Amino acid sequence: MKFITAILLFNCVNAFAQDSLYKLGSDSYRKPNVPKGAVTKYEWYSKLYNNFREYYVYVPAQYDSSKPAALMVFLDGASYANETGEWRVPIVYDNLIAQHKLPVTICLFVNPGNAVKEYPENRFRSTNRSVEYDDLSDKHTLMLITELIPEIKKQYNIIADAAMHGIGGLSSGGIAAFTAAWQHPEFFSKVMSHYGSFTDIRGGHNYPSLIRKSEKKNIKIFMQDGNNDLDNQFGNWWLANLQMEAAFKFKGYEFKFEKGSGTHNSKHGASILPESLIWLWNDAK
To answer: How many CA atoms, within 13 angstroms, populate the side-chain half-sphere of residue 229?
Structure first.
């Protein structure tokens, strides 16, 4: 028993040691003379879900209201918008837009819904997160494209072309991002999934089969995961992402899968975020 315990402890320590290998690059830090965009926090009551959520809007310094901007939506928005956290998306966008490596983009950071306005300190614990993110229906996507995004468009000029609309998320947010494009490719054509939960939480394990059997859709996908990701009663995250990769390859989708050795966290995805965004948007005009 002691021998088995020692092996398990070694494997656990080794997995977390792999996470420590991933470090943020220069484009994830503030640089002198790079124009700084603005991030504004709002709150939204969704009639569709009858709940509340916080959201943030990033507007780059280069935004010109006479010219329509691209749109990128990030689910679990508080995590991605945090400039002192792991993702630091506003900083990354400031740097890459200044380098002309990304189009001028309005970023919408959306948190999952909560039953009341007293949000949990950890926004990942919002009451409606799994209901909204792990469900394979288009209800959450409709909330975005019929409620929230029209509200943003009242203030900002966003291009109508689906080729200039992207959506991303992590874990359950990763599968939710794919669901948004899968259900409404006429609105979202670019997907970014970080260690996506394509497992049997609410039927996500069915996606590889659905992809193989359905007509190919106009979706471009970036994926990231580590081979030490979760393995529990809902499935094996690494194997689930490999199944998604195989289905995309079989069907001829344009996709990229960055494979690492990390666990179920943001360290690997955040360390390659600038390069990931550049690849996802390299066809932007």
So the answer is: 28
Per-residue model confidence as pLDDT tens digits over 153-201: 999 999 999 999 999 999 999 999 999 999 999 999 999 999 999 999 9
Average pLDDT over residues 43-59: 98
b/e map of 146-176 (b: 16 or more CB within 10 Å)? eebbeebeeeeebbeebbbbbbbbbbbbbbb
The full length of the chain comes to: 285
List the end-to-end C-alpha distance of the chain, in Å, as a whole number: 61
> Which structure tokens are listed for 256?
């990229």
Residue 268 · residue 260 · CB < 8 Å: yes
- pTM score of the predicted model: 0.94
pLDDT at 27: 98
Q: Where are the domains of the chain?
A: 2-280
Contacts of 220 (CB under 8 A, 6+ apart): 189, 190, 191, 253, 254, 255, 280, 283
Q: Please give the CATH number for the structural domain made up of 2-280.
A: 3.40.50.1820
Segment among 10-14, 116-120, 158-162 with least mean pLDDT: 10-14
What is the C-alpha to C-alpha distance for residues 37 and 40, in angstroms, rounded to an integer? Answer: 10
Dist CA 149 CA 188 (whole Å): 12
DSSP-H helix ranges across the chain: 2-19, 77-81, 89-98, 129-133, 139-143, 149-153, 172-183, 207-213, 237-251, 267-271, 273-280
Distance CA 193, CA 221 (A): 8
Dihedral through CA 283, CA 81, CA 130, CA 165, nearest 10? -20
What is the share, in percent, of the chain residues with pLDDT greater than 90?
A: 93
